[in-house]
Amino acid sequence: MKIGLLGFGTVGEGVYQLAQTHPELEIVTVFRRKDGEIPGCTVTHDFSQILNDPEIDTVVEVIGGIEHASEYVLAALRAGKNVVTANKALLAAKYDELLAAAKTSGAKFRASAAVGGSIGWLANLERAKRIQEIDHIHGIFNGTCNYMLDLMTRQQLDYQQVLRQAQDLGYAEADPSADVDGLDTAAKLTISANIAFGISLHHESVPVSGISQINSADITTFTERGYVCKLLGTADKFADRIEAYVQPTLVRSSDATAAVHTNYNLAEFSGSATGTQSFGGQGAGRYPTAYNVLQDLCDLLAGKSFHTDTVPQSEVTAENSTQLHYYLRGDSTDLADWPAAEISAHWDQGILTTAQPVAKMHQWLKAHREVFAAALPRDFQVHEMK
Ligand code: HSE
Prior knowledge:
alpha/beta; binds L-homoserine; homoserine dehydrogenase activity; methionine biosynthesis; five-stranded antiparallel beta sheet
């Protein structure tokens, strides 16, 4: 296999290094912004040098972002070159277009590293849905946020400290607001729902609230009551609708999800034959992510492609009518806007709401961006409130 590698940042360099011990995976040309030699490869700033090289049969895209990546990946697929990408934003935004391009040209396409870093979650989802109906997925899909929330909880560190650490470790996106505002999780949830439910979910219809407003006092409030805060993505397939949303969520400290530490992800699905299955591993970082890019390349060598046989015909919009209790904490003006009749209890500086439709809560949060909100577990009982 002769490979054109697009991008030589954290993941790209990891792909290059892991490929060195696999002579059948030959990286011929690297497209990168910076100058500088890379042993054994031609370095170019011009993508057409890869596109027009008939020797290169496979393109690996790890530059991230949507605009340029989409242009390059679609051009490569249309030219019949196989593509492996780790780009979740691209896949979430252009899922049906990418699948259609691969189907038309017959190019093979894989994206296992786009969700779950090292886990191989998407490959497992594809296998799972060959045999059964999947009606629920949820999980921790962002290593940066999990790292931050975990260290804030277990080591009582503050928000800025842990964000800097996650950046230094190479977990965070170039602009970490994609992590802490939940957009990265939303992209990964969208892709997972697409594969699990055989749909094309309109990614902008997935409501998102992130962790950027959380503080150490919130964490203490949760710890004292036996909860741990995680940023979760959840999607359900009901008979009449698809639900999908991303939000900080409190899990009981005895729950397995609470024990997911540092940059680890935990992704789960519920299937008609298997019941619930869980998949875990490092969700971010150079080698964990590069590992699954290499796995995809090995799958291409074995002739396996992403499922391009069923390209969804039209986009689905998330409709979130599930009702949950929420913890809300903000300044007194913001909280005064929450109807008194819909408060069930007070937790230190925050309030607990009565059960609210997820869609309604996210609508309210859009107008109250300084408020930190966390959903209580689905089976939360009012008598648990203290
Ligand atoms: N910034 C992402 C994360 C990288 O923290 O999970 C892996 O997709």
